[in-house]
Design brief:
2 copies of one chain form a homodimer. The first copy, chain A, has 248 residues and is of the alpha+beta class. Chain A is 29% helix and 27% strand. Chain A contains 7 helices and 9 strands, in the order E-E-E-H-E-H-H-H-E-E-H-E-H-H-E-E. In chain A, the strands form 2 sheets. In chain A, strands 1, 2, 3, 4, 5 and 6 form a 6-stranded mixed sheet that branches. In chain A, a hairpin with a 2-residue loop joins strand 1 and strand 2. Chain A starts with 8 loop residues before the first strand and ends in a 9-residue tail after the last strand. The relative contact order of chain A is 0.18. Chains A and B meet through strand 1 and strand 4 of A and strand 1 and strand 4 of B. Chain A binds a DNA duplex (30 and 30 nucleotides) through helix 7. Chains A, B: It holds the Pfam family NUDIX. Chains A, B: This is NUDIX domain-containing protein. Chains A, B: InterPro entries: NUDIX_hydrolase-like_dom_sf (IPR015797), NUDIX_hydrolase_dom (IPR000086), WH-like_DNA-bd_sf (IPR036388), WH_DNA-bd_sf (IPR036390), WHD_NrtR (IPR054105).
Amino acid sequence: MKILNKEDYIEQVSIDCVIFGFHDRQLRVLLPKIRVLKDIWTLPGGFILQQESLDEAALRILAERTGIRDIYLEQFKVFGSLERSSPGLMGEVLETHKDTFAELGMVADDVKWLQRRFISIGYYALVDIHQVVPEISELDESCEWYDVKELPMLAFDHADIITKALESLRLMLNHKLIGFNLLPETFTMKEVQDLYETILDKPFRRNNFQKMILDLDILERLEKKFTGAANKAPYLYRFKQKGGEGES
Amino acid sequence: MKILNKEDYIEQVSIDCVIFGFHDRQLRVLLPKIRVLKDIWTLPGGFILQQESLDEAALRILAERTGIRDIYLEQFKVFGSLERSSPGLMGEVLETHKDTFAELGMVADDVKWLQRRFISIGYYALVDIHQVVPEISELDESCEWYDVKELPMLAFDHADIITKALESLRLMLNHKLIGFNLLPETFTMKEVQDLYETILDKPFRRNNFQKMILDLDILERLEKKFTGAANKAPYLYRFKQKGGEGES
DNA sequence: CATTATTGTCTAAAAAAAAGACAATAAATC
DNA sequence: GATTTATTGTCTTTTTTTTAGACAATAATG
């Protein structure tokens, strides 16, 4: 009963996921930490089954490694330089896990393929950080959110993958309305502005930002939100469901 | 002496290239036609050697299939649905080429891997259609330019790949200055406008378009071009080389 | 040398973006 | 309960950008 059966997967191809969340004016990335790699983190990744599409594989990998389901996913780039693979580091991982593999009835040859060159398809996911409760998989010793500006040491070319994911996210933020995937179901205009300012790393004027967003005609205004703060309560908004009630 | 030695390549991964050219207010795609596939065209594609990066592989494939070298290339998407592979069609190709393979000392098992599921990395290339003289490779019976609006019957999901390449090109045209890769070294402003109008499929005002492009500060004006037409001769322009003479 | 078909460039109008201003209001303070 | 404080909601003004209009310049034609 092997976990990883070489025959079940497409060889030399992996998927790596950059999971973005937003909280407290910080754009964060969810990083599970593999038990073996002391003080080195990796992006949640995995392999593609022969009988699943790339998108399906990415969703499955996310669920397996973090417990996250039903989220926004975007394929953004393939990484395939020769230098990106690191047989030495991977060899270390395999060596440390030797006993585990042995228990599963796997011999050295069954995992040797992991040391080959790999091409990796990069996906990024956008999630509501508050709704997500990361599950720590058996492989990992932790699974936590890190500010993109203060990332820990990452293995292979994973730091580069995150950088590219962020570039892609920034570019897309102006084209598609993907930003709202990072917010809870209801939110204030200030929260939207904080999100945009954090991702694009530039300030907006409150009055003009509100006009810009509302002119998109994608939000519906709900009741006010009483925060307990000593000031006027802001309205809550919700992303409009297409085909909803609509105006008469 | 086998042409395709399974061991030399990454399995189940291919690269497909959409080569764009521009002429006569038409955006065109260069399509080699494989000898076997009667009345069905395919994108120039190939496989990735174990010892080359993805970009290197794409450049090599382009050179092998079309003779084109030193051009602008952009990776735009990976295609990996289960339906995209078509063992039947590929089987037909292999069956027809059976004798050729036999001559090369290859037995059925040596090409069987081509019938497996493939993931394909999409690249698009931008070339000056006038500078390029397509070479017809041994595999192909023709290699010609087709208007993207009047494409012939394409195998597998190649029509879809071209559509996605075009979408990506349109999106990037506003961000990067990639459009000029489709023009000759010197060109008139009208040619630039024709290019933009064709790709984006929308008209521009002559006066405003000129201002928009010149304000980018990327073109240098050369001498006038005397076309022989009964009107004012337009200026020629050239894409500024960075680190050139510059203004004092 | 007037005619024709474009090109180069200027100015005016319209639209959009940015900046400024101020009343409204929910809680805290006195 | 009046006053203060920190924001929010929204309106107006200013500035910038985009779009539209206008016309002289010019290379070949007849």
